[in-house]
Design a protein that fits this description.
The chain is of the alpha/beta class. The protein has 2 domains: about 170 residues, 3-Layer(aba) Sandwich (Rossmann fold); about 160 residues, Glycogen Phosphorylase B (Rossmann fold). The strands form 3 sheets. Strands 9-8-7-10-11-12 form a 6-stranded parallel sheet, with helices on both faces. α1 runs parallel beside α2, α3 crosses α4 and α7 packs across α12. The longest helix has 17 residues. It is globular. The C terminus is likely disordered.
């Protein structure tokens, strides 16, 4: 279960994992509140997509969505419900008790948007889940320390690139060198700082094109900021794209100026494509980039440091190529698709033996006798 199948790192990770599980012989159904571009790809991989409802549900608790998940779980006679992203997680935690099915959750972000109310209602719902998989150590620490999840229920299972790096699309030829951000246009992604750094570099590097790929709540604000900074046609806003990995592969430098992160898939996609990365020291990014060995790390919200890092790589093409090669080699030492898939399958097996809150009157200590799919 995921909130939606829109374009995003979490969605691409969920789609890749679902396809890998299907390839292992499991019966996989992916439920969401809004379909998206990944739907056709999932169908080709043997994964059924079920849309629960008529509109997207995000960043809230929906009892109606919980009822729909519970109904789907009963009809499908699934062994496990695996939820990703906030609304799906909260609804699945409720649905698990109703359908008497263990719930596994993957937490993809630090959830910096949550206020006291969201934190308060999340805590008891987390306790209903059999296991919570965090994509980074920082998220795991947040789950234990802030959300009160028992340490035994938390595991770190990183992100991975499912499938090989794509070929760069035709628009790579628009400029000799292209620097860009690929991600949601939301406050935590720090795109503002990328634009401010670009404004300091346009005169020094007249042949460079700056690109922003993605969409979100800050779209109009960022367009206005680009006009204020007099970037003109030196920055291009390409909107949401269905070929996110290809958009990454099209760049000469990927910039990840995030203020908060989990373990962003876009960093791994750039490394797989041999694209050098400049990113902030948040979440699991330092680990992904080998503490700076496989990429350039800067402090978040530091426009001066970001500008210097970009200027250095733009000035030294050999260093760009070296970092691209190093990143690709370093990626082989990180969690790969097989490792992540195996860890998730292990979590499912363990969840069947320890399916939730010991105080839950509907807790099962294993199968309750019904014949079910390897869901």
């Amino acid at each position: 279960m995921v909130d939606d199948l829109r374009i995003g790192g979490a969605q691409r990770q969920v789609a890749g994992l679902a396809g890998a599980l299907a390839a292992c012989g499991h019966t996989v159904v992916l439920a969401c509140t809004e379909d998206g571009p990944a739907g056709a790809e999932l169908a080709a991989a043997g994964v059924s997509v079920v849309v629960l409802g008529r509109r997207r549900v995000a960043r809230l608790v929906s009892p109606m969505l919980a009822l729909r998940i519970a109904r789907l779980a009963r009809v499908g006679r699934f062994d496990v419900v695996h939820a990703h992203v906030h609304a799906a997680t909260m609804a699945a935690a409720l649905a698990g008790r109703l359908a008497r099915v263990p719930v596994v959750v993957t937490e993809h972000s630090m959830a910096s948007w949550r206020g006291p109310l969201a934190r308060a209602y999340s805590r008891p719902l987390y306790r209903r889940c059999a296991l919570i998989l965090a994509v980074s150590e920082q998220i795991a620490d947040r789950l234990r320390r802030v959300d009160g999840v028992p340490a035994a229920r938390v595991r770190v299972v990183g992100t991975a690139v499912f499938g090989g790096p794509p070929a760069a699309p035709a628009y790579r030829r628009d400029a000799p060198v292209t620097v860009g951000v690929v991600g949601r246009l939301e406050p935590e992604k720090g795109v503002e700082f990328f634009l401010r750094a670009a404004a300091r570099l346009v005169d020094r590097h007249p042949g460079v094109a700056f690109t922003v790929v993605g969409d979100g709540r800050l779209r109009e604000d960022l367009h206005a900021l680009a006009r204020h900074l007099r970037l003109g046609d030196r920055v291009r806003f390409r909107g949401m794209r269905t070929d996110g990995p290809a958009a990454v592969a099209a760049l000469d430098i990927l910039c990840v100026p995030s203020l908060t992160e989990g373990a962003p898939l876009v960093v791994l996609e750039a490394m797989a494509a041999g694209v050098p990365v400049i990113a902030t020291t948040v979440g699991a990014i330092p680990h992904q980039l080998g503490l700076g060995h496989a990429g350039v790390l800067v402090e978040p919200a530091d426009v001066t440091a970001l500008t210097r890092a970009l200027d250095s790589l733009l000035t030294h093409p050999r260093e760009r190529r070296r970092l691209g090669r190093t990143g690709r080699r370093h990626l082989t030492g990180l969690a790969n698709a097989n490792t992540v898939t195996d860890a998730v399958c292990t979590a499912y097996r363990d969840a069947l033996h320890h399916p939730g809150d010991p105080s839950d009157p509907n807790r099962r200590d294993g199968h309750d006798g019904h014949d079910s799919h390897d869901g």
